[in-house]
Design brief:
- The chain is an alpha+beta fold.
- The chain has one domain (10-85).
- The chain is 20% helix and 45% strand.
- A 5-stranded antiparallel β-sheet has the order 1-5-4-3-2.
- Strand 2 (39-47) and strand 3 (55-60) form a beta hairpin.
- The protein is globular and about 35 Å long.
- The two termini are 21 Å apart.
Length: 87
């Protein structure tokens, strides 16, 4: 897990065919403590924007965006995700 504070994305990996719940837990691990408290799973959007693509828009309870998590690589060893924070 890589908690970048610079301009690049934070990254994490999950096992192949991980559930949305498993992915959500990994997203929370990458967020800052204050972002973790503000993140609302029920308000966040889990999307499949194209065949094989996945994105999760992490939202606060007021519907404002915290970050966007994008599936960046799929392999037999697992799926790599990148998180881009909203500023």
């Amino acid at each position: 897990m890589d908690k970048n504070k610079g301009n690049g994305p934070s990254k994490f990996a999950v096992p192949p065919f991980a559930s949305d719940d498993e992915i959500w837990i990994k997203i929370l691990e990458v967020l800052t403590p204050s972002e973790q408290l503000e993140a609302s799973r029920s308000k966040s959007e889990f999307n499949d924007p194209y065949m094989g693509g996945k994105e999760i828009i992490v939202k606060r309870s007021d519907n404002s965006d915290i970050a966007v998590a994008l599936l960046s690589e799929v392999s037999s060893f697992g799926d790599e995700w990148a998180i881009y924070r909203e500023f």
